[in-house]
Design brief:
- The chain has 2 domains: about 190 residues, no CATH class; about 180 residues, no CATH class.
- The chain is built from 15 helices and 13 strands.
- The mean pLDDT is about 85.
């Protein structure tokens, strides 16, 4: 143990109440920072998992066709140039097999699923509801979604074996008062087809569960009168965080519009980010109080220990040694506060994860969602360190400026 550290510890224990005040605020600041960031990040990660499991990491849809403009080169010759601002979009994917083959050349692509979508009217013996029919190839779609785990009634194998089977969202099934095994009619522009509910799924996203009806691709083509082409291709990635970069490259190579999940859900992601920043600012008040308490504690120690400082200076201690003694005091409080606060953060995060919290709307969960991310602990400790150490600099420099002669004469400032 260095002499500076030993002296700092002795000075600090002389002001036990003030030290405990600063320490308790540091502990609360670190602990609450970790818990709030764990919950906000937990809900955000669960939301991302939900949307990736329903809509995929990427969606490839409308074909891009550059508008060509005729230019006169003189001498009676003309040539065509691509006019980027005049891009034309052709709805849907006309050649899905070719596009999927191109997608499979990207190393980050883990699965693709062609989807044919159309607006329909669902008729049951109870009532009618507008909905969207999604024609899929089941095995392909299971690779790009969590549809298998989202089944809450029935069995996915029943849908696989039934040519006229359908997967219906829970909200839509409840509105139509349909159960597994019940039949219903899909009405597309007067074309009526009867189907049977093979299974009922629930994603937790109300906008999906109340409108989507999955049927086999061949049935969708027959119903919607679309013998070729699809509406979009849903893509899953090994690394979801590269979706934006991959979307740009795919759009350039395949000449089809590509939308990453970050752009698709930009508004919700912005809301989660704002909530995270807001909660961090709120709980940082505790570390701010800890810094002010540390400032007050060290300022009082400077006033009360002027004679001790004079003796230290007379013994050969330089100004930087006195500064280090007072900074060591702040470091001791910070170290204890960070360790105890981190432990409280662990316990608090675990306790919060067990609290019941039924949510159904943008995702489905029964408890608080938390994220066990080491960066939350790093950010909490850094926030406390900045405030506590910053508050300690002024008293430390003031103590270092004290001269033994001024203290003896009573003229020290």
């Amino acid at each position: 143990m260095s002499p500076n550290f030993h002296i700092a510890f002795r000075f600090l224990t002389a002001k036990k109440r003030a030290m405990l005040m600063s320490l308790s605020c540091t502990v609360l600041g670190v602990g609450l920072f970790i818990v709030t960031q764990a919950t906000t990040s937990g809900f955000e990660e669960f939301f991302i998992k939900t949307i990736l499991g329903t809509n995929g990491a990427l969606r490839i849809d409308d074909k891009i066709q550059d508008t060509m403009r005729s230019m006169n080169a003189g001498g009676g010759s003309d040539f065509l140039v691509s006019h980027r601002e005049g891009v034309k979009y052709i709805q849907g994917v006309e050649e899905p097999k070719r596009v999927i083959a191109g997608l499979n050349d990207f190393a980050n692509v883990s699965g693709t699923s062609a989807v044919l979508q159309g607006n329909v009217l669902v008729r049951s013996s109870f009532k009618n509801e507008t909905a969207q029919v999604f024609g899929i190839n089941l095995d392909e779609h299971l690779k790009v979604s969590d549809l298998r785990s989202q089944i809450v009634q029935g069995d996915i194998s029943t849908f696989r074996e039934a040519p006229t089977g359908a997967l219906m969202g829970k909200v839509l099934a409840e509105r139509l008062q349909l159960d597994v095994g019940n039949s219903f009619i899909l009405d597309y522009q007067g074309e009526l087809r009867r189907y049977r509910v093979s299974a009922i799924y629930e994603t937790g996203v109300t906008d999906i569960d109340k409108v989507r009806v999955y049927v086999h691709m061949n049935e969708a083509r027959s119903l919607l009168k679309k013998p070729i082409g699809v509406t979009f291709i849903q893509v899953n990635l090994f690394n979801k965080d590269r979706a934006v970069e991959d979307a740009f490259q795919m759009q350039e190579v395949l000449k089809h519009s590509a939308q990453a999940w970050q752009d698709r859900e930009k508004s919700w992601l912005s809301a989660f980010h704002a909530l995270s920043v807001s909660s961090a600012i709120t709980v940082s008040v505790f570390t701010l109080i800890a810094g002010l308490a540390m400032f007050n504690t060290l300022a009082m120690i400077v006033l009360e220990k002027t004679k001790d400082i004079a003796i230290l200076r007379s013994m050969g201690y330089e100004r930087r040694d006195i500064t280090r003694i007072f900074l060591w005091q702040a470091a001791i409080v910070l170290a204890i506060g960070a360790i105890v606060g981190a432990l409280i953060g662990v316990v608090g995060t675990f306790a919060v994860s067990k609290i019941p919290l039924p949510i159904n709307g943008i995702f489905k969960t029964e408890t608080f969602q938390v994220s066990w991310n080491g960066w939350h602990y790093v950010e909490a400790v850094l926030t406390a360190a900045i405030m506590v150490m910053a508050a300690s600099i002024i008293p430390a420099r003031r103590a270092a400026r004290l001269e033994p002669g001024d203290i003896v004469r009573g003229t020290a400032q």
